[in-house]
Amino acid sequence: MTKLWIDPPEGWRYGFPKVWDSVEQPNMRTWLEQVGYPKEVMKGYGKWFAVRQWAVKEDNNATE
Q1: DSSP state of 3
Q2: Is 56 helix (H, G, I), strand (E, B) or coil?
Q3: Are 64 and 53 in contact (CB under 8 A)?
Q4: Do 11 and 37 contact (CB within 8 A), yes or no?
Q5: Residue range 53-63, pLDDT digits in tens
Q6: What's the rounded Cα separation, in Å, for the pair 54 and 5?
Q7: Closest residue by Cα to residue 51 from 19, 24, 2
């Protein structure tokens, strides 16, 4: 399974990075608001709003 981590601008102030479940909430902007990222901050970036994102593959067969 692959997880997509999202880190918006100033995200550390709001508890980011966080894992986005695109199946549960397909709209990333809506999801960002739902998990605590302020809409005003997002709007402040205008068309330049972008997020860092990276995928991490979980190894379900790993042993500890």
Answers
A1: E
A2: strand
A3: no
A4: yes
A5: 999 887 766 66
A6: 5
A7: 19
Joined together, the tokens standing for residue 10 give 């100033």
DSSP secondary structure letters along 22-55: TTT---HHHHHHHTT--HHHHHHTGGG---EEEE
pTM: 0.82
Q: Which residues pair with 57 in a beta bridge?
A: 2
Is the Cα dihedral 43, 18, 22, 53 positive or negative?
Answer: positive
**63: which DSSP letter?**
-
Residue 8: how many other CB atoms lie within 10 Å: 24
| Average pLDDT score over residue span 41-62 | 88
